[in-house]
Amino acid sequence: MEDAELIHEFVEEAREHLGDVETQLLQIEAMGANINDDLVNTVFRAIHSVKGAAGFLGLTQVNNVAHSFENVLGKVRDHQLVPDPFNVDVMLKAADRLRGLMESIDTSNETDNTELCEKLDALLVENAPATTETPDVPAQIDAIETAIEDAIEPAVEEEETVEDALVEPAADPVKKPRARKKATAKKAPAKKTATKKPAAKKPAAKKTTAKKPAAKTTTKAPASPTEPTPIVEPTAAVEAPIAAPAPAAPAPAAPANAAPSTAAKPSPAAESTIRVGVRVLDRLMNLAGELVLSRNQLLRVLGEHDTGSNLDSIVSGLDQVTTELQETIMQTRMQPIGNVFSKFTRVVRDLSGKLGKQCELRIEGKEVEIDKTIIELISDPLTHLVRNSVDHGVEIPDERIAAGKPAAGTLQLHAYHQSGKVRIEIVDDGKGINAAVLKEKAQSKGILTAEQAEAMGEREAVRLIFHPGFSTAQEVTDVSGRGVGMDVVRSNIEKLGGTVDIETQVGEGTTIVVTLPLTLAIVPSLIIQSGDDRFAIPQVNIAELVRIRKQESQRIEQVNNKEVLRLRGSLLPLVRLKTTLGQVEPELEPAAPADSESEFKVRHIIVVESGILRYGLVVDDVLDSEEIVVKPLGRHLNDCPCLSGATILGDGRVALILDVNGTAQQSKLRVNEEDKSQRLALDQEARERENLQSVLLFRNEPSEQFAVPMEVVARIERVESEQIVKVGSQELLHYRDGSLPLLRLENLTKAKPCPDQPCFNVIVFETGGHEVGVIASSLIDIREVPDQFDATTFHDTAVIGCQVIDEQTTRLLDTIELARKARPDWFEATAKKTVQISAENVSPTAKPNVEDNAEGDCVLLAEDSSFFRRQVKRFLEESGFDVVDCEDGREGWNTLKASPDKFRIVLTDIEMPNMDGLEFTRRIRSENRFADIPIIALTSLASQEDFQRGFDAGVTEYQVKLDRDELIAAIQRYATPTGVSDALASVS
Amino acid sequence: MTTTTQTPAESKSSAAITLATFYVDNMLFGVNIDVVQEINRLSDVTEVPHSPSSVRGVINLRGEVVTVVDLRSLLGMKRREIESDCRCVVIHSQDELIGVLVDQIADTLSVPQSKIDPPPANIDGIEGQYFRGVHTLDSGVVILLDVQQLLEAN
């Protein structure tokens, strides 16, 4: 029993040692003859301690390999062997073998490692001094060596409970250099060194008393303070007990006693790290969660009894501490991504060697931290992607030279944080992927029809490699093949809540971008109601929410006795959650046509997807989106197919997490294999057409909800009512070095007045060169909503349109209009400025056009969302531009071709059906006559990469859709609007 | 409520075990108190779809999601509504906490091993395979329940 535990500890410890050894060997190899003694010593000691413990535990094969390995390392350390790719190869193999043996430690003694040992020993042969060791001796030596290890860590025995105290004892010369080395090389060095100790402690406890003193004696020499060299010469340490084992016995145990006093002072090199079980952390996490609940309850009670403001500050203090506590606990689960990256150095080295390629790996962002669980699960998919890049991406040196590239390819791994996620880029400078070839292959495999292939853009075509069943047999090499396709990589990454995307340029290289959530423990989810219960659906599974009003009920149809929803031209199978969960008997729930007449006002359908599966889940209500902490279900509930776990909601009740796949199976939903891919293509298109707008939701009077586009929000301030000063009719917030004019919605629109309250939120915008704040009683959320705002039903100044968000009619505000209404003076000034700017910009060549409004002054606007199209067109026309609007890139292109001289500037949305903005831009740029026409891309949300892609296609400038001032200023930079030109003409 | 019947002399005669006792359907059961973490009022049970019939649902026990099983169902009796006397006995079972729903909670008893008699094959028509013994009190008998085995089997 105890042995098993000992071995387990040994394996854990050995794995840690060996994990580092590989990287270190590769570094040693890179340095060649310029041997770094510290590094070699580190490896030497790692192998040495593996060997020692293995010998003690009777793991003879591990011991043998480690022994031969150690000898080789000894020669390297003594500068008698210069590391080169050949001998490092053998050493790496030895490290691999040791790791392999650790995996199946129970059967390790039955393995045969003579061949490897011979190879290792062969490295010793040149100028090897005659060794006097007989084969039988090592085992004995090893036992003693283990004892040395134990004895030089006496602190362990003295201070068992405080692992923190297990920092390197000052009197421990053997260990110390390693600790230092690690401190510089690794982020959490002390953890590794500290964790080594409990394992070492056990053998000591098992030792007979007769052996122990002997061990202590051997350590006495190296530990002696007069000893000048900090590193023990292992041969000396080994030989000493052989020479004189008996006399050593009575030696005093002085070092053991002396050590604790020094150990009590942590050395600066050893950051205080402590190993804590994940269970304990989970428990802490739970308790923090409970604290949050208690806090919420407290807040609620306090809200009911209007108490003094004194309590408020205490509660907000508690609030803050609780939040920080939870965040800090989350941090404990984080580990640097370098833990995964480090192994790729070896992967790339071995693989490129095998394929006769040269490839250099550059790693950036090792320190980026991500949840431990994700680290573990992302390792395989990443390995596959890296191997793929080396195998299929990087060319062989001849080919590269012929293509004018350096012989050695470069593979870059780059991890960084972006908007709350971790992005990992795998960039190679290889031959890229030919989209045409992929299309052809997809056609031959029946994944695409000829028409689909024709219509498919390059980017989309490249993504075909992630399509199930795309990896072909003839492509499977022993390197990348391994029976795993890119579709598996994708689905594994998606299981983690991540995404993977690919970009490629033929001849230039390929970039694969993996986006991962920071943690699995917290999952953004949508809380829905079904019957009396609430359930959570992970956001990653949710494609969109559809609300079917009573008058639209014909969109739900019956096909083969199954309900389907007509959604943008395709049919989506529906699953009724209540029926599937057995909350109602199927026959009790009236069929759709019957109840559609009588009962339901709106029907909530959540379009969920998982891999290839996609269906609509009919639920009773959509409640909220929440970041939930996932908790496992007990063993009695293992067989609940629809559930993947549970969580605790804000009110302390348990909500179950739905498994989208299981729910589909339970409801016997079958994906029709034949139209699957077609539907996917359709859906893809539909999704791309769906524009999302990020809005800030807030309330003025508590029952009325408003939204403003996030792009126009400069910042949000929380102010106390005393801070607001009234000057004349204008309210001001004294603010930094100036004052901020405040607007109240009730004064400018048909909004109900904001109630008096001690604190307000101020949403700050910039418009016409001024900052202005809008007072809000409370902020609700930031949401991505479809950009379909109903501009007809509700008419009010400064209201762009309405949309129902969370069952609340929400008015989207036009901030510029608000400001204009409140401070018309600002805009008069702007108008003058505009004229001036335009006057400066009117070039001599442009002047003739002023005479002729019909030619050359039109703005071509391509935008698929009718809402945005109307908005942009309206405000451009108000500013004096002639606008021709088109519904997509294709129409835009045809319009432009039809009257090429009519347009001065092109404004285009990016995501559009039929032809997207990028393709539209490329087409324009492909013709010489349009080479100079400015193209402004309109966007609501875009990343840096999106921008780059746009610029690569030929976009002149990016502008935010609803930022009117900026957009107009930009257009004025490029074109002279008719109205202004007229004004200009009349002025002059 | 029940009272303990043992005298100090008796407890000396053999090792005593401490039982947490509770009523289910008017029968008094006891489980070794070592496996009991705590006893709770039951509130806010979330039902779990497709769960075995013996599972009442899950509760939030200070941040942990704990399965609640109905002892009535486990013993083959009829389920009934959760009433105000009902309690949840939280048991350590295989690294997991499991709530066991009982009708009413009773005293803690210290019973000497020697005063525990082998159980009859069945009691009041209830299958006796999870009964480990009976102890006679003035007011009736307390049945020793092997709750681990019971949770294991279901």
Description:
The complex is a heterodimer of chains A (988) and B (154). The longest helix of chain A is centred in the first third of the chain and has 30 residues. The radius of gyration of chain A is 35 Å and the shape is globular. Chain A is 45% helix and 23% strand. Chain A is built from 36 helices and 34 strands. Chain A starts with a helix and ends with a helix. Chain B has a single domain, classed as OB fold (Dihydrolipoamide Acetyltransferase, E2P) (Beta Barrel), CATH 2.40.50.180. Chain B contains three helices and twelve strands, in the order H-E-E-E-E-E-H-E-E-E-E-E-E-E-H. In chain B, strand 9 and strand 10 form a beta hairpin. The two termini of chain B are 30 Å apart. At the A-B interface, helix 14, strand 17 and strand 18 of A face strand 4 and strand 5 of B.
A few lines on this structure:
Chain B: One of its GO terms (biological process) is chemotaxis. Chain A has 988 residues and is an alpha/beta fold.
Within the CATH hierarchy, at the fold level, what is the topology of chain B?
OB fold (Dihydrolipoamide Acetyltransferase, E2P)
- The structural domain count of chain B equals 1
Strand content of chain B: over 45%
What share of the residues of chain B lie within helices?
Answer: 10-25%
Q: In total, how many beta strands of chain A?
A: 34
The computed structural class of chain A is: alpha/beta
Q: Identify the CATH class of the largest domain in chain A.
A: Alpha Beta
Largest interface: A-B, 30 and 25 residues
Net shape of chain B:
globular
Order of helices and strands of chain B: HEEEEEHEEEEEEEH
